[in-house]
Design goal:
heterodimer; A: 395 residues; mainly alpha; B: 169 residues; 0% strand
Chain lengths: 395, 169
């Protein structure tokens, strides 16, 4: 009984945090892209456009859901459901932290730990392809169909380097359970270098991580691999005929896939929730970051540039100082610290996703395929073989 | 109890999907029913505590091969294909085959459970390692030769398809 209650609470918690993160990820993306392009980004709804995600959600829910007459109804409705459910389920095996004790109940900061955790994520990612492919086919529209076709070809091709790139760190970690992977990466080498897979001997996996990230970009349909929805040539590709919540479902799936890719990279290559610095230094970084934020807010509040800054910025300073105190208070520290490190690493990777979207142009279709089969795939095979050789030599 | 319910559920998925794969006229529907069938088999693997096979079944068959199937089907003009004469001229032969297999099945069902036991089941070893490790052990020691032959066959198939697809290499 206790198991069900704890699981339900954890699932609800993760669900709400995930939904909020997805909504705000979009805000972050618009802001970052805007600043890369020397614009301001959303600024009207709330301070710095912070309430923009809420406004977007209300807009999407209240919009009329148009179903074009020429679509294949069953698959037209099935496609967004597949896309969004597959991408959301994948979060369930991601570990956000170690074992914690809340109100006398010991539990893991993870929804469930499977002995095939990583394979499940890959399986769900490959199932998610059907959402896009079917959306393209069921729309009965040539642009959508082209988007669906591109997506299925792209997924099948990039799954190979993706799987090969993730297989090499597995040789070092010797497990498929995501929680065990993190515990395998505990400790520090030479007293300061974390024992993460990208640094771990005998075969540091830095190249593996780059290969995995490139393939993950393609799997999540992000620029420069967003050919299934290339708006300059295919209108909106596979979701051209979708509106309202059905469109929102595809949007949510894309961001959730991005989040999963970043979280898996963090877990497999970057040591999950483990701190980057040993001992006290690692413990003090989080409160230091938040305290600095609070100090900056307080300084600007005391020297206000606008009249209202006198009242708003000290409040923000107080919030930041409160967060900093959270990391120092012993009972909360055990929960907050892993979340901070996990969030920091995942957030940094998500920033890379957005940064690259603001930087690179889209591939041409033949370049996309050539890049995968003539460069990424052979390199991934060689990398796997080299890793296997080094691991075997090290015994 | 729950295992039994799930067993029948997955069996239904597998068999129902398989029947509908050959019974539907629309090729996309056929492909999707085949996916359902494959997912049912994956579920059966999971019931047998073969988690690795479950994941690999989904990654390879559902996520790889069937996506490729769907890709090809989407390129085909389905309306023209559906209007053409279907491959159903072999009805009598098919009926004969089904009747034969059915007879065989009922004969052995009538003889009871021992008839299905070809040999005494080997003793189940105590699980010392996870499913993934045991598959690797068996694959790379006991069944190494068939494994290598299969990989060679696949290589031949890959090279063959490249040779057939490319006019000038």
């Amino acid at each position: 009984m206790e198991f069900f209650i704890v699981s339900t609470i954890k699932a609800l918690l993760v669900f709400f945090v995930l939904m909020t993160t997805l909504a705000y990820l979009q805000w972050v993306e618009r802001k970052v892209i805007a600043h890369i392009q020397l614009r301001q980004g959303p600024y009207r709804v709330g301070p710095h456009g912070l309430l923009q995600p809420l406004a977007d959600v209300i807009k999407l829910i209240t919009k009329e859901g148009i179903v074009p007459p020429h679509v294949n109804k069953f698959f037209y409705f099935l496609a967004p459901i597949i896309a969004v459910s597959m991408s959301l389920i994948a979060i369930s095996v991601i570990p956000f932290g170690g074992e914690i004790e809340v109100f006398g109940i010991t539990t893991h900061m993870q929804l469930t730990d499977l002995n095939i955790g990583l394979l499940l994520v890959l399986a769900l990612a490959s199932m998610g392809t059907y959402g896009i492919a079917l959306a393209g086919w069921a729309s009965n529209n040539k642009y959508s169909l082209l988007g669906g076709l591109r997506s299925s070809a792209q997924m099948v091709s990039y799954e190979l380097p993706l799987s090969l790139a993730i297989a090499s760190p597995l040789l070092l970690l010797n497990t498929l359970s995501l929680r065990e992977m993190v515990t395998q990466q505990e400790g520090f080498m030479l007293g300061f270098l974390p024992n993460w897979t990208i640094f771990q001997g005998p075969a540091p996996q830095l190249v593996g991580m780059v290969l995995f990230l490139i393939a993950a970009f393609a799997e999540t349909n992000r620029i420069p691999f967003d050919l299934p929805e290339a708006e300059t040539e295919l209108v909106a590709g596979f979701h051209a005929e979708y509106s309202s919540m059905k469109f929102a479902a595809f949007f949510m799936a894309e961001y959730s896939n991005m989040l999963t890719a970043a979280a898996v990279t963090t877990t497999v290559f970057l040591g999950g929730w483990l701190p980057a610095l040993p001992g006290m230094a690692g413990d003090l970084i989080a409160p230091a970051v938040f305290a600095t934020g609070g100090a900056v807010c307080l300084y600007h509040g005391l020297n206000p540039a606008r009249k209202r800054d006198k009242y708003t910025l000290p409040v923000f300073a107080l919030v930041f100082f409160g967060l900093a105190a959270l990391f120092l208070a012993p009972p909360l520290k055990d929960i907050a610290m892993p979340l901070f490190w996990f969030g920091a690493k995942t957030g940094a990777l998500l920033f890379v996703f957005i940064w690259i979207r603001g930087t690179l142009p889209r591939f041409r279709y033949d370049q996309l395929m050539g890049f995968c089969w003539k460069f990424l795939f052979p390199v991934a095979v060689l990398h796997l073989l080299a890793t296997a050789l080094l691991v075997a030599l090290a015994g | 109890m729950l295992d039994t319910v799930f067993f029948y559920l997955f069996t239904l998925l597998t068999l129902g999907g398989a029947i509908l794969t050959v019974a539907t006229r629309n090729a996309v529907h056929s492909a999707l029913f085949l996916i359902t069938s494959l997912l049912g088999v994956a579920g059966l693997y999971l019931l047998l505590h073969a988690e690795f096979l479950f994941a690999v079944q989904i990654i390879v068959y559902v996520g790889g091969i069937m996506v490729l199937f769907l890709f090809v089907i989407m390129l085909v003009n389905l309306d023209a294909a559906a209007a053409q004469r279907q491959f159903s001229r072999m009805w009598p032969v098919a009926l004969g085959c089904v009747a034969l297999v059915g007879l065989e099945l009922f004969y052995f069902l009538g003889k009871g459970e021992p008839a299905f036991r070809i040999a005494a089941p080997p003793p189940v070893p105590e699980p010392t390692a996870g499913n993934t490790e045991r598959i690797a052990d068996v694959l790379f020691s006991q069944y190494l030769l068939p494994f290598e032959i299969a990989s060679l066959l696949l290589l031949v198939a890959v090279i063959g398809s490249v040779v057939m697809a490319k006019k000038r290499i």
